[in-house]
Amino acid sequence: MQNLKFKIKVEKLNLFYGDFQALKDVSMEVKENLITALIGPSGCGKSTLLRVLNRMNDLIEGVKTTGSVKIDDKEVLNHHNNLIDLRKKVGMVFQRPNPFPLSVFENVAFGLRIRREKSRGMLEAAVERALSAVLLFDDLKDKLKDNALTLTLEQQQRLCIARLLAVTPDIILMDEPCSALDPLSTMKIEELMAELKKQYTIVIVTHNMQQAARVSDECGYMLLGELVEFGETKQLFTSPKDKRTDDYITGRFG
Ligand SMILES: Nc1ncnc2c1ncn2[C@@H]1O[C@H](COP(=O)(O)OP(=O)(O)O)[C@@H](O)[C@H]1O
Ligand SMILES: [Mg+2]
User: Fold this and answer.
1) How far is the CA of 43 from the centre of ligand 1 (A)?
2) Ranges 3-7, 15-19, 48-52, 237-241: which has the least confidence
3) Looking at the domain assignment, is residue 144 inside a domain?
4) Buried-most residue among 20, 85, 98, 123 (CB within 10 A)?
5) Residue 157 lies in a domain
6) Span from the CA of 175 to the centroid of ligand 2 (angstroms)
């Protein structure tokens, strides 16, 4: 794993919501084509850190950041950056699937239409490609006109991932993507992640330690805004270096 290229480099990142400091001096490096998990008790800053990576926190008033976040060696926190390009490159999947109240087809085509792609043939090919990548095409090829809200939750979450893939991101951020799903659907989404990492870099937030252990290659443990420990998942779960990580993964804390 040492030889893989760094995709994201976070250095001495601090984030404040007004006077409250939610991230404290966080440094980490995310490698390309790996699944990196962020774990830790509720409120420790996992979602906040994830949202920094595509500047979603910009939408919240009173947020201040210091430090550096580089993606492909380009500074992300530079406010002159083009946010649309960044969000195209860094897509995000949320806790509850959030398809638009549109057809299956229009959900997946949404980002391309925003980019003024008008050719029907191009759109159809892109929709098929994205739905196939999330293993939905065979199930839904006769239901492309159905409203996306009629799908099962698991299908909706896959559809939301397909909607991202259609605009060809490099990085997929997932914030507890399985928390609304039953165990069998969760397993299927985890299998999908393993497939997607061949082409994408994935950062997943989960409060489910077993999930982090199952799906991730590298893992960070957060506590009260600090990244306490970061490293190979196997190592972190079997021989953590920090006593606080040990307390958490053995269930003494959290
Ligand atoms: N929009 C916000 N305004 C003020 N405080 C916030 C906001 N979002 C999160 N926080 C606070 O920041 C801390 C980290 O939150 P969050 O990143 O959501 O944690 P996690 O995802 O690990 O549960 C918490 O104390 C939370 O209350
Ligand atoms: Mg969260």
Assistant:
1) 6
2) 3-7
3) no
4) 123
5) no
6) 7
Q: What is the CATH number of the domain that holds 91?
A: 3.40.50.300
Which residues approach ligand 1 with their CB closer than 6 A?
17, 20, 22, 40, 42-48, 60
- Provide the domain limits for residue 63: 6-100+170-249
Give the chain's domain count. 1
**Placement of tokens 């939750």 in the chain:** 153
- Tell me which ligand sits closest to the C-alpha of residue 221: 1
Residue in the structure block whose two tokens are 């994205």: 130
| Mutation pick for ligand 1 pocket among 14, 19, 24, 47 (CB with most ligand atoms within 8 Å) | 47
Is there a domain that residue 107 lies in? no
Model pLDDT for residues 27-83, shown as the tens digit of each residue: 999 999 999 999 999 999 999 999 999 999 988 999 999 999 999 999 999 877 788
Tokens representing 143 are 């239901």
pTM higher than 0.70: yes
Q: 170-221: per-residue pLDDT in tens? A: 999 999 999 999 999 999 999 999 999 999 999 999 989 999 999 999 999 9
Residue 89 lies in a domain: yes
